[in-house]
Amino acid sequence: MGTIPWIIASEIYPVDVKGAAGTMCNLVSSISSWLVACSFSFLLQWSSTGTFLMFATVIGLGFVFIAKLVPETKGKSLEEIQSLFTDPHEDSTIF
């Protein structure tokens, strides 16, 4: 899950905000990674099965989010990708 925000940010944002969006993605990813690293040992002491199920649930929800809400951008121009997010009448094929 770590690189997905960077990939999405590099494809959906226009050039004039791509730097700021990449910075925000990096910041959120770093903070999230730090939270996971700090909480993992405490969660593992609490319950190894519970820790596994908690992380598996988060990954599962992330997969569902990506599969349902992130449009396919392969072979599309930047303008076509931007229209997927701005034009509500555009047919957006998701996976």
UniProtKB/TrEMBL annotation:
<dbReference type="InterPro" id="IPR020846">
    <property type="entry name" value="MFS_dom"/>
</dbReference>
<keyword id="KW-0812">Transmembrane</keyword>
<feature type="domain" description="Major facilitator superfamily (MFS) profile">
    <location>
        <begin position="1"/>
        <end position="74"/>
    </location>
</feature>
<protein>
    <submittedName>
        <fullName>Sugar transporter ERD6-like 15</fullName>
    </submittedName>
</protein>
<dbReference type="Pfam" id="PF00083">
    <property type="entry name" value="Sugar_tr"/>
</dbReference>
<keyword id="KW-0762">Sugar transport</keyword>
<comment type="similarity">
    <text>Belongs to the major facilitator superfamily. Sugar transporter (TC 2.A.1.1) family.</text>
</comment>
<dbReference type="InterPro" id="IPR005828">
    <property type="entry name" value="MFS_sugar_transport-like"/>
</dbReference>
<dbReference type="InterPro" id="IPR036259">
    <property type="entry name" value="MFS_trans_sf"/>
</dbReference>
<dbReference type="InterPro" id="IPR050549">
    <property type="entry name" value="MFS_Trehalose_Transporter"/>
</dbReference>
<keyword id="KW-1133">Transmembrane helix</keyword>
<feature type="transmembrane region" description="Helical">
    <location>
        <begin position="52"/>
        <end position="70"/>
    </location>
</feature>
<keyword id="KW-0472">Membrane</keyword>
<keyword id="KW-0813">Transport</keyword>
